[in-house]
Design goal:
The chain is 38% helix and 17% strand. The strands form four sheets. The chain has a seven-stranded parallel beta sheet with strand order 3-2-1-4-5-6-11, sandwiched between helices. It is globular and about 55 Å long. The protein binds uridine-5'-diphosphate (UDP).
């Protein structure tokens, strides 16, 4: 095993976004120095509760170059990305230009400044329609939408940059990120909001007339889609484990991040009704294009090798923290 250098200052792109902002907080709590880079197109200034915020665009190479000159960065966590499956189908140009293009600009500037540790926010969407569940890292990667394709591209670029330039990376393939901070200080905020849990809870608050269930004829026990919901704080903890992995000089690798438990859309609605104590109006609708019936992680590799296990991803905690955030929402 190679000797690693300690990591202190970490550039967090997309650090004002949902998963990035929770990770920035956790990095600071663990004694790292996070520096957030965000163009605030989707992110929120109020979400950056610790460390400096650099407002700028990843496509701006001169800005990045200057940022790396001003900060002594020892690793990069790359959250900033377009991340809507449906939008990627109708506007793939945006996804290839921003997700792949910006990652290449960032990696180029990193190499110029001799920063060679990189953690990628990847996704289970790189696997496409699963041929078996639970999905392990050795499952074939065959994305069925441009979003998944862009992340798969970046993973392949990283492998080649490792070979050619010794850039070490960890690619974390998230399943369904869910839940919010325990104290309600930061949380998920998208406009428009498309994700299931906030849509359900905002329906409970009367912001929508009903929640539409996308498909009731899937080959699952209750006919609705099954997903593996992993708490955003557990995702943040996995990023800390990934930094430690790179710090220890270990080789580049890929890890699934999920709980291994799948819940149907109906099960999510039931839990939301229990947690809110409200009856939530539901409309049964048709399938949404590009939704596989079941996505559940085999996360045993991350469990065994990164020493990571979910701590707060039981469904009730996920829903309670999400509800707490909706009630206290600051942005
Ligand atoms: N879903 C739904 N109604 C909604 C939003 C989502 O039935 O208004 C379903 C969706 O089809 C999927 C699951 O909930 O099976 C999770 O969707 P989400 O958009 O939260 O995450 P994704 O799985 O697309 O990453």
């Amino acid at each position: 095993m190679r000797e690693g250098k300690p990591v202190d200052k970490i550039l967090v792109t997309g650090g004002a976004g949902y998963i990035g902002s929770h990770t920035v907080r956790e990095l600071a709590a663990q004694g790292f120095e996070p520096v957030t880079l965000d163009n605030l197109s989707e992110g929120h200034r109020e979400a950056v509760v610790t460390g400096p915020l650099e407002v700028g665009d990843l496509a701006d190479e001169a800005f990045l170059d200057d940022l790396f000159s001003r900060h002594s960065i020892s690793a990069v966590m790359h959250f900033a990305s377009r991340c809507y499956v449906g939008e990627s189908v109708t506007n793939p140009k945006l996804y290839y230009e921003e997700n792949v293009g910006n990652a290449m600009t960032l990696l180029g500037v990193m190499l110029k400044h001799d920063v060679k540790r990189f953690i990628l926010s990847s996704t289970c969407a790189t696997y496409g329609d699963p041929i078996e569940v639970p999905i392990s890292e050795s499952h074939p990667q065959d994305p069925v939408n441009p979003y998944g394709e862009t992340k798969y591209f970046i993973e392949r670029i990283l492998k080649q940059y490792d070979r050619a330039y010794s850039l070490r990376f960890v690619s974390l393939r998230y399943f369904n990120a869910a839940g919010d901070s325990l104290d309600g200080l930061i949380g998920e905020s998208h406009d428009p909001e498309t994700h299931l849990i906030p849509r359900i809870l905002q329906t409970a608050q009367g912001k929508y007339d009903y929640i539409e269930v996308f498909g009731t004829d899937y080959p699952t026990p209750d006919g609705t889609c099954i997903r593996d919901y992993i708490h955003v704080l557990d995702l943040a903890a996995a990023h800390i484990a990934a930094v430690r992995w790179l710090e220890a000089g270990k080789a580049s690798d890929f890890f699934n991040l999920g709980t291994g438990n799948g819940y149907s859309v109906r099960a999510m609605l039931e839990m939301a009704e229990q947690v809110t104590g409200m009856k939530i109006p539901v409309k049964m609708g048709s399938r949404r294009e590009g939704d596989p019936a079941e996505l559940v992680a085999d996360a045993s590799k991350a469990n065994q090798q990164l020493g990571w296990t979910p701590q707060v991803s039981d469904l009730r905690t996920v829903m309670e923290t999400a509800w707490n955030w909706e009630l206290k929402r600051r942005y």
